[in-house]
Amino acid sequence: MEYSDLFSLPLSTYFSGTKLRWMLDNVPEVQKAHEADDLMFGTVETWVLWNLTGGKNGGVHLTDVTNASRTMLMNIKTTQWDKDCLEFFGIRESALPKIVSNAEVYGKIVSPPGRKLTFEGLPIAGMIGDQQAALVGNKCIETGSAKNTYGTGAFMLFNTGTEVVPSNYGLLTTAGYRAGPNAKTVYALEGSIAVAGSSIKWLRDQMGLIQEASDIGKYAAQVKDTGGVYFVPAFSGLFAPYWDDTAAGTIIGITGYTNRAHMCRATLEATCFQTRAILEAMAKDSKKNLQVLRVDGGMTNSGEQAVR
């Protein structure tokens, strides 16, 4: 079995399937419930929906296609739980929620016993993973559009349309969204950067080069370039497209000329270089030209002064 052909993810403890396998091996209560066919498993939206619709008193057990695509248990092409994947991890399909679209009525809000909720009876009609939500929220609904969320890390998704595009360049293939039960699934390529905004926090808290995170743009604007300084903020290895857990943070090109402004600019440019590497990998994998890149996240507040 070529697992990457099924769920388009590297075998990693980052995803849900390996976490459930660990619990089955190490938590007796979970193992007993699984053996008795009395186990219910899901991701965060599954838990929230189940509780809102009644929990133990008839709550619905569903997951949306985007979150299901990150469990290592869903076949990315059929968007259903895959029997080979379930056999590989030793998981009963009956323990898993039904996979649904991102836009349909899943159930209505139910008040818990002894408590009246203000929103009782209102329908719940939308669930989606966080990065896929940013893809839709940034209106990246046309093929070739992409979004990058610059937070502590950075997460870029590239809309590839209704075609499943496997990656040969270190990216992940994911479900982007399905706009209704009868709609086709729109897919995306995803590239993750481990360190983005957290590198600014490092400059502030560990190095003391800035007082506030917002200072980085002010100092970076004081110089026209980095003075030959290059910063690789691989504090926890490198994610896409390199996937190198052994990589360590590196700063090169420091001379007696280097000052705080050069370091600030090199820190911002480090995220730009990593973003470009992912965009180039996306272009190679999809064989489609980037039409638009929309951005969000706290790091976008560095302001125009930093890139003058």
Kindly list the characteristics that best describe this protein.
alpha+beta, Nucleotidyltransferase, domain 5, two-stranded parallel sheet, 13 strands, 10 helices, 308 residues, single chain, 2 domains, elongated
Helix/strand layout:
Elements: H1 3-7, H2 16-26, H3 28-35, H4 44-52, E1 62-64, H5 65-68, E2 74-75, E3 80-81, H6 83-89, E4 98-100, E5 107-108, E6 123-124, H7 130-137, E7 145-150, E8 154-161, E9 172-177, E10 186-193, H8 197-205, H9 215-220, E11 230-232, E12 250-252, H10 260-286, E13 292-296
Parallel strand pairs: 1-4, 7-13
Antiparallel strand pairs: 2-3, 5-6, 7-8, 8-10, 9-10, 11-12
Helix pairs in contact: 2-3
Q: Outline, from the CA principal axes?
A: elongated
Tally the beta strands: 13
The count of domains is: 2
Q: H/E series, N to C?
A: HHHHEHEEHEEEHEEEEHHEEHE
Continuous helix count: 10
Percentage beta strand: 15-25%
Class of the largest domain, according to the CATH hierarchy? Alpha Beta
Radius of gyration: 22 Å
Strand order of the largest sheet: 9-10-8-7-13
Just name the CATH architecture of the largest domain. Answer: 2-Layer Sandwich
CATH fold assignment of the largest domain: Nucleotidyltransferase, domain 5
- Distance, first to last CA: 51 Å
DSSP helix fraction: 25-40%
List the quaternary state of the chains. single chain
- Overall mean pLDDT stands at 92
Derived structural class? alpha+beta
Task: Assign the CATH superfamily of the largest domain.
Answer: ATPase, nucleotide binding domain
Unreliable stretches, pLDDT < 50, 5 or more residues?
A: 1-5
What can be said about the biggest beta sheet?
5 strands, mixed
